[in-house]
Amino acid sequence: MLYIDTHTHIDGTEFDDDRDAVIAWAKEAGVSKMFVPAINCQSLTTIQKVCDAYPGYAYPMIGLHPEEVKADWATQLQHMHNLLQGPHPYIAIGEVGLDYYWSRDFANEQLKAFEEQVKWSVETQLPLMIHCRKAQNEMVAIMRRYAHQLPGGVFHCFTGNQKEALELLSFPQFALGIGGVSTFKSSHLREDLPAVVPLNRIVLETDSPYMAPVPLRGQRNESSFIPHIINTLATSYGVPPDEVARITTETCLLYTSPSPRDYAAS
Fold it and tell me: CA quadruple 259, 209, 117, 88: dihedral positive or negative?
């Protein structure tokens, strides 16, 4: 049973002591590929280092995380855009979006930064990896302006309700990223997802090292923990776990890959 972790911060300092082992465990658990999002300019260096060390397994994204949008946001975006002008190795624009959960101090700047990076997706035809907390209305409003030009992507870490899911699914070229939250006792995703979300509109993710699934909640999350998410989805949708793995992998290659044939071959 093989599957893809579409969102892991494996370049983070949390993995500096045992990154090779963590990746080995992931491979043993069935993870066939890892997609690694950027959060700022500094992270591009660590991401590329990891992806260079694991060619054909770890794939880099480029983008400015909304919580990293500060006074220097325009300078960071200019640097990133310059990197996109050449023969870039990036598979997606991400992790980008809006986050008003902790603060709205840079709310206007977040809107500008997000829209600029949505334009990058249109320009490069690289898919988007979108982070959104407490800002779905604002996020959707921006995306509506470019809906017919966007190549696709993922609404990362979806934890919303049925109404919110249906609104996001109205972007037909996008999938929902489902991770460890789906296993939490308090989560309504186990009921809401099968009610309105076809299984072929879901991709798997960890957001590691964050949000480890039950029964490992509270530990450092790892890609090798994905079987817990698969088993939860299998129970919710009433299908075997290997069917979840197969369908989500096919969806991943369809919705998140600028070159699905390349991924299938690598």
Answer: negative
DSSP-derived 3-state class of residue 75: helix
Three-state secondary structure call for residue 199: helix
pLDDT at 258 exceeding the cut of 90: no
Question: If you search the block for the tokens 């972790």, which residue do you land on?
Answer: 5
Is residue 262's pLDDT more than 60?
no
Residue 136: pLDDT above 90?
A: yes
State the Cα–Cα distance between residues 212 and 181, nearest whole angstrom: 8
**Torsion over CA: 210, 264, 51, 143 (sign):** negative
pTM of the model: 0.94
In whole angstroms, what is the distance from residue 15 CA to residue 20 CA? 9
Q: Which two tokens mark 162?
A: 């049925």
Alpha helices by DSSP H, the chain: 19-29, 41-53, 73-84, 107-124, 136-144, 162-169, 189-196, 226-237, 241-255, 260-265
